[in-house]
């Protein structure tokens, strides 16, 4: 059985390739050619962390997968990754174990690639400013995914710790050779054409009146019902697109909370991103429309990248 490391993934797959793989993965999911049950979650006794079990199967890819990751937000204080884990891949025809894949960067890559795809499908074509909330590794791949599909002139970074914001800006400027600056005031958010939220906050990060008309938002930080990055009134006003309906209605507070409060109904979800890829649902309809892509992550995304790696490392 092949062992695929983070270094292997970083060496052999680009963000552009990952975005193309997400397009195929979400298409297959919405067409019913892939199965990804809502993940099983186990919390630690003190609720400081959780372990997620994410099975998947795709007849198109010919693979079974099971990803198991732990998420401990306080790990940064211990100089440990917030997300750790592995994914097991088995042959879809005979069940033979094919590979074990380190899941930390795999998760970061596919999440950034999903936002890249959503930005390409939903954001306005001509944009200038990207705002990012968060300074962790997920924020890095959010930036990379957006830059792959839009020519951004400036990136504004919002965070709660000034030292982390400055460090993030410095590293990303060196990596992408782009004008990236720490935010000085929330007034700057009104300049943003695209917003990516990649935090662990339990309260909304901004208010509706602070947003520019026609903004596109990628919300990837909220992954449990008590977490809400995007205000309920913004969700209500937006064209809301999700990665997977079933998971979106049970896991992230960004949707669970406004549904529970009666601000929106379950039918407010306009589409899965795969339905827009397949052309069965429309995307943006005007320059002034607010679009939101809410993602909690889906095991089919991981399976698509795993299949690519296996094709390169095993079947060649």
Kindly describe this structure:
Helix content is 35%, strand content 24%. The model has no long low-confidence stretch (mean pLDDT 95). Helix 2 (15-31) crosses helix 3 (104-122) and helix 3 packs parallel to helix 4 (137-149). It folds into two domains: 2-107 and 300-313, ornithine cyclodeaminase, domain 1 (2-Layer Sandwich), CATH 3.30.1780.10; 124-297, NAD(P)-binding Rossmann-like Domain (Rossmann fold, 3-Layer(aba) Sandwich). Helix 4 links the parallel strand 8 and strand 9 (154-158). By secondary structure, it is of the alpha/beta class. The protein has helices at 6-12, 15-31, 104-122, 137-149, 162-176, 232-237, 245-248, 253-260, 273-278, 299-313, and strands spanning 2-4, 34-35, 40-43, 50-58, 63-71, 83-91, 97-102, 129-133, 154-158, 180-182, 194-197, 216-219, 239-242, 269-272, 291-294.
In the CATH scheme, the class of the largest domain would be: Alpha Beta
How are helices and strands ordered from N to C? EHHEEEEEEHEHEHEEEHEHHEHEH
Count of extended strands: 15
- What is the helix content? 25-40%
Give the DSSP E fraction (strand runs of 2 or more residues): 15-25%
Largest sheet: 8 strands, parallel
Please mark out the parts with pLDDT under 50 across 5 or more consecutive residues, or reply none. Answer: none
Secondary-structure content class: alpha/beta
Q: How far is it from the N-terminal to the C-terminal residue, by CA?
A: 15 Å
Put simply, the count of helices is 10
CATH architecture of the largest domain: 3-Layer(aba) Sandwich
The name of the CATH superfamily of the largest domain reads NAD(P)-binding Rossmann-like Domain
**Radius of gyration, whole Å:** 18 Å
Overall geometric form: globular
Strand arrangement across the biggest beta sheet:
10-9-8-11-12-15-13-14
Q: Could you state the oligomeric state of the chains shown?
A: single chain
Mean pLDDT: 95
Number of domains: 2
Annotated CATH topology of the largest domain? Rossmann fold
